[in-house]
Amino acid sequence: MSKRLFVKGNEAAAMGAVEAGCRYYFGYPITPQSDIPEYLSRELPPLNGEFIQAESEIGAINMLLGASATGARAMTSSSSPGISLKQEGISYMAGAELPGVIINISRSGPGLGGIDASQSDYFQCVKGGGHGGYHIPVLAPNSVQEMYDLTMHAFDLADLYRTPVMLLGDSVIGQMKEALIPNPRPVRELPAKGWAVRGKSGAEQRVVKSLFLGDGELEAHNWHLHAKYQVMKEKECISEEYETADARLIVAGFGSVSRIAHTAVTMARAEGMKVGLFRPVTLFPFPEQALAQAAARAGKVLVVELNTGQMVEDVRLSVGAAAQVSFYGRPPGAGSLPSPEELLEVIRKNYQETAR
Amino acid sequence: MQQVFKRPQSLKDVQTHFCPGCHHGTIHRLVADAMDLYGVQDRTIGVASVGCSVFLYGYFDIDVVEAPHGRAPAVATGVKRARPDSFVFTYQGDGDLAAIGTAEIIHAANRGEDITVVFVNNTTYGMTGGQMAPTTLVGQKTSTSPYGRDKSKDGSPIKMAELMAQLGGVAYSARVAVDSPKHVLEAKKVMREAFGYQAQGKGFSFVEVLSACPTNWGMNPLKANARIGEEMIPYFPLGVFKKEEA
Hints:
- The complex is a heterodimer of chains A (356) and B (246).
- Chain A is an alpha/beta fold and 356 residues long.
- Chain A contains 12 helices and 15 strands.
- Chain A has a 7-stranded mixed sheet with strand order 3-2-4-5-7-6-13, sandwiched between helices. In chain A, strands 10-12-11-14-15 form a 5-stranded mixed sheet, with helices on both faces. A two-stranded antiparallel sheet of chain A has the order 1-8.
- In chain A, α1 (9-19) runs parallel beside α6 (144-161) and α9 crosses α12 (340-355).
- Chain A is globular.
- Chain B has 10 helices and 9 strands.
- Chain A: InterPro entries: 2-oxoacid_oxidoreductase, PFOR_II, Pyrv_Fd/Flavodoxin_OxRdtase_N.
- Chain A: Residues 247-339 form the Pyruvate:ferredoxin oxidoreductase core domain.
């Protein structure tokens, strides 16, 4: 029997990184993610790894860029304002096609905001964030177990597609403790890193760069990146469904709020309402087809987010005219998590509208 | 017949694209010469910065990583920590290193990263068209200091080699110039010494090179060379400011 641990989400992500073979971590303290650098500062040196507390989030992301360029598995983590600072480096890494994992235990904003759970950075994470029109895979765990499993998955995706990958959680996911079964890293065939800089050693010169000045070079590069995103959309979507088969109303939510929505859906079922839950696990690529199918069957989708409406735009694009879309959000603010009863009331109202 | 002078092995056999009178070519030679001296070409990873110096990989026959503006010391930190057996240097201009990248250079130096930093100081932003740099001399006219740098408003030119020498992690810090054959020979010696620190794993080394940007200075190459001796060296003295014994 596998051992069962009782750990924080942040620690689970750090453990997943170590299990995935990550030996280099660069970060800068910010609440509510500091358990990650604290854990890795303790665990990496005995594994012959390196932990560096950088001078800033900008320093950290660029150390990640450098380590990744050598082909090593490396990671950084931060929270919303820190991720804003990292966006320059993320754009460069996307442009230079460098793998690397970035954990974002987001907080509320804008500006300094607060450390409470919030999903107000969906756009920043999913729509590029930095300059230049790129995408990176964004994974949204909703449990301690997924913090561990999806961090391992993030490293594989990063190497498979030569791209930075972000794990997006919040203080509910990062700070809560739950049971974790630290399964061994899944075996996945990954491409060799022939592009990595190692010193020539008699071979051809290798250059890791995002500057393409030749005629048509940059356009070709951008088409290449675009093609990669299309492959991700076909192959890498992950979503979870609960009670959607006969549902006439689908509640859609990701991360922390999906747990509250899950409870509310169970309560609604107990009242005899045919309600289901759709949870995107990958926010990019967004599970458009799976959602569209579930939505078309139900006819109505209620999107719940801890913001004033961001993922709802992707939901509308996914379902098109096949289903009606409504939204319920709670913007950032201390104590603004909706209770299951609060969501149940919103579900009742939306469900009654479908019955008319 | 004995060959007494040749292109360093670490440099590619290509024509330069830099402006007439620009010193990048000379400085590239000095860097390549030091690399050859220690036989590190095959394990060297260069970190290119933003500006004219980004084209490093077009001239050096080595593996290269491109860094965002000012971030080369952080990128080099990641490279060296992940591959401690590699030889890592950054090549940065004054806007890159002394303005946007001030935090990165100071902290990489202070951590004592085992890398070498080549700092090309021509008192202006070259590629962007001659704007005021942190090293622009007081009174110097640039496209963003059209009335001349005003100390009371713009501050004083930053003396990076001296600043670096104050930091605990720095093993070697020096300033050289490449305006005359005599100075180039001195610079060659200093560059070799600086690279030697890393070749022997002795820690962070820093070489500031005073160089010309005739195009943006609005001077011909000869006048630009003369300006280095007449205006720059009096403010930015040449010399070795720190040399830690092993």
